[in-house]
From TrEMBL:
It comes from the Eukaryota. InterPro entries: DUF2301. This is Uncharacterized protein. It comes from Nyssa sinensis. PANTHER family: F3H9.20 PROTEIN. The keyword Protease does not apply. Keywords: Membrane, Transmembrane, Transmembrane helix. GO terms for cellular component: chloroplast. The chain crosses the membrane at residues 87-105, 125-145, 154-175, 187-204, 216-234, 240-259.
């Protein structure tokens, strides 16, 4: 059910990331947010039947990309704050991927090797860095349905709480780091699992929106490894192989994000502005857009 809900939400509206089109049929007074960042506070008003947008404290900000994109609720452009947010979003993914790969690589080194010992001494730090990077990306991710975004963030927060509780109450008294404790005690997956559920939701969104094979495969690999460890139905050899696949796909996934145009991770800005409007303003805008059809 959750997968179906996420699938339905991410494919609406239908005209996402469209190429620039002629705007002669669309009044530029309707949601032309070239100076508006949707993650910053903004002021929206309706006057003389048109929508006017002005960012608070960003009046000097200009569009970094002169291309005008046609959104569902009006034209929009990419401004510097959009670029910063997308770069931070992608940087969070790189941080999460790099931390995970470094931590997981200890499974492939001899136990008595210097590199393995160095990694194991810093597993808690790597875990914290990876969780922080994922949290940053979930804060900045653009999903049209707010409830889905909040659900992913709630899963992340629940996973952070569970990880801290497990580390303080169980792992530390046992003289182990958090990751080693989870390895030795599979039931601890219940406490850290929500964090990885949030990661799974993020890669599922990326795979669905952009058709990325590595993201689609990760959607199945991540829960398979965790559930296999939790239930004990997966032997160590299979888990190690899936872990190696997870590492490789995660690196490819994070790296390929920087090959995408900035606008891809912005989505349709007009949708986010529409969602930020008061109900009366939404009705006024919809009525005006309906009038443009005739």
């Amino acid at each position: 059910m959750a997968v179906q809900l996420l699938s339905a939400a991410l494919v609406v509206p239908l005209k996402l990331h469209s190429q620039p089109k002629s705007l002669s049929a669309t009044p530029t007074s309707i949601l032309y947010p070239s100076r508006v960042s949707f993650l910053s506070s903004s002021r929206v008003s309706i006057a003389n039947g048109s929508i006017k947008c002005q960012a608070v404290g960003d009046s000097s900000q200009s569009s970094i990309d002169p291309t005008v994109y046609r959104g569902v609720y009006g034209p929009w452009t990419v401004d510097p704050s959009d670029v910063r947010e997308v770069i931070l979003y992608r940087s969070g993914l790189v941080t999460a991927a790099a931390s995970f790969v470094f931590a997981a690589s200890s499974a492939f080194f001899p136990d008595n090797s210097l590199l393995s010992d160095l990694i194991k001494q810093n597993l808690d730090l790597l875990y914290a860095l990876g969780a922080g990077g994922l949290g940053l990306s979930l804060l900045l991710i653009h999903i049209y349905v707010t409830e889905i975004k909040l659900t992913l963030q709630a899963l992340w927060a629940l996973g952070i709480f569970g990880s801290l509780a497990t580390y303080i109450s169980l792992a530390q008294p046992a003289g182990e780091n958090l990751i080693q404790y989870v390895i030795d005690n599979p039931t601890a997956v219940w406490f850290v699992g929500p964090l990885f559920a949030a990661l799974t939701g993020l890669v599922f969104k990326e795979g669905l929106c952009y058709g990325k094979l590595e993201a689609g495969v990760l959607t199945f690999v991540i829960p398979s490894v965790l559930l296999g460890h939790l239930t004990g139905l997966m032997d160590d050899g299979v888990k190690v192989n899936l872990l190696a696949l997870w590492m490789a796909l995660f690196v490819i996934f994070a790296g390929r994000k920087f090959t995408q145009p900035i606008k891809d991770d912005i989505g349709d800005k007009s949708v986010f502005m529409f969602n930020a409007l008061a109900e009366e303003e939404k009705k006024a805008l919809i009525e005006k857009l309906e009038q443009q059809k005739f």
